[in-house]
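BUG: 3D viewer hangs when loading the predicted structure for this chain

Environment: internal workstation, default settings.
Expected: structure renders.
Actual: progress bar stalls at 90%.

Input used:
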Amino acid sequence: MASKTERFIVPAQLIEELPYHDMARAREEFGPAYDYMSNSLLPEADINVSIDHIKQVPVDFESHIKPHKHPVSEVYLVIGDLTVEVILEGEKHEVSGPAGVFIPAGMMHTMRPLRGSGYFAAVLGGGKYE
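C-alpha cells produced before the viewer hung:
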C-alpha cells in the first residue's frame, strides 16, 4: 500500500526553459539548472526552488538573465566558492558565497555569475515561476 505522504517527495527536473532566462546558453556555458520544487512538480506546492550547478564561470560571461521582477519575494543563495553580480533596482553588488540575497516582491533584479564554482539557488514564494 502506498504511503499517504510519498507523493510529496519528487525528483528534480532539468530546467529547459524559464521566463527571462537563456537556459540553453547557461547550461552550455557553466552547467545545468534543476527545478527542485514547484507546482509543475507537485500541484500543491506553494514554493518554487531551483538550483544551478555552476561548474566554472567562463571569463567575461554575459548575463543569461534579462532584468525582471516577480509578484512575490525571492531569495538568492550563493553556495560554494562562487561570486555573482546581483543587480537590484539598477544597483550592482558583488556577492561571494556563502551568502543570501533577499529580493522583495516587485523589485527589478538580475544576476550573472562572475567567477568560481558552486551552486546558485533561487527560492520564490508561490508555486510557479512568473
